[in-house]
Design goal:
The protein is an alpha/beta fold. Helices cover about 45% and strands about 15% of the residues. It contains ten helices and 15 strands. Helix 5 packs across helix 6 and helix 8 runs antiparallel to helix 9. The termini are far apart.
């Protein structure tokens, strides 16, 4: 098994590209050499680099870097889908964010990506029945990145959280694959109910900055939610909603809103 993992690592195109970019970054900015070597080039795989970053950012006087590193290494080694999701998230950021020019940027500098990877470890802990540790990771992620995702929430692959400040995703929320959301988005409840109470976001949805999606409602695949909207009812597939409360104002305007990232409302959308 170790031999197979070594071969997979050796042909991992995402990790190979990251390492090439890292070596170039050290040449261009030697003052960052120690940071880049410690964060990227010192590690044999993306999973090990992400585990290091997770432990470095979330360590505190209450939980050491070494203990967090052991937790992350265990998560990545026992659940390969976490690493696969990280690669999909990384490619999503690179493809959709015009400020992202290299794969190494989200790993080192983008808190939306880093917070999402921290959530993925917290979600793994939750599934293992280690709920107090999952809550600790949630707390530290919120403190460090300003992103509060309940560890029981279910989030798919290829997700981009741009800027990420003040993101809130509740316990029973579900976010599909290839979703994009901007800062200050809330996927929340509408009261004190304790059962299934948070939104279900379909694949390919684009959620604009400051949008609030509240209650156990469904947002259909490949729809758009305009910035600042408050969504309180189901949204059909391939539609654009806007306003307070949000109403359908037209079609989504394209086949893949989350990938296109077009947030301008036009006549007929």
């Amino acid at each position: 098994m170790a031999h197979i993992k070594a071969k997979v690592s050796a042909i991992d195109p995402v990790w190979s590209r990251i390492c090439d970019e890292a070596r170039g970054a050290v040449r261009d900015e030697p003052l960052l050499g120690a940071l880049i070597h410690a964060g990227l080039l010192h590690h044999p795989s993306l999973e090990r680099a992400l585990a290091y970053r997770f432990s470095l950012k979330l360590a505190s006087g209450e939980m050491s870097e070494q203990l967090l590193r052991e937790i992350a290494d265990e998560a990545y080694s026992s659940e390969p889908d976490i690493g696969a999701a990280a690669r999909a998230d990384l490619v999503a950021v690179y493809d959709r964010d015009p400020a992202c020019h290299r794969f190494l940027q989200p790993i080192l500098f983008f808190k939306g990506f880093q917070a999402l990877q921290s959530y993925r470890i917290a979600h793994w802990l939750w599934g293992q029945g280690r709920r107090d540790m999952a809550y600790f990771v949630q707390m530290r992620t919120s403190e460090m990145f300003g992103v509060d995702i309940h560890p029981a929430a279910r989030i798919g692959r290829g997700v981009m959280i741009d800027h990420a400040h003040s993101i809130v995703i509740g316990e029973t929320a579900v976010v599909g694959d290839n979703v994009s959301m901007l800062h200050s988005v809330t996927l929340g409840g509408t009261g004190k109910e304790e059962e299934d109470r948070h939104p279900k976001i379909g694949n390919g949805v684009l959620i604009g900055a400051g949008a609030k999606v509240l209650g156990n409602i469904r947002v259909g695949e490949n729809s758009r939610i305009a910035a600042g909207s408050v969504v309180l009812a189901d949204v059909p597939c391939c539609k654009t909603v806007a306003g307070v409360p949000a109403r359908i104002v037209g079609d989504a305007g394209c086949d893949q809103p989350a990938s296109e990232m077009d947030q301008i409302l036009k006549n007929g959308c």
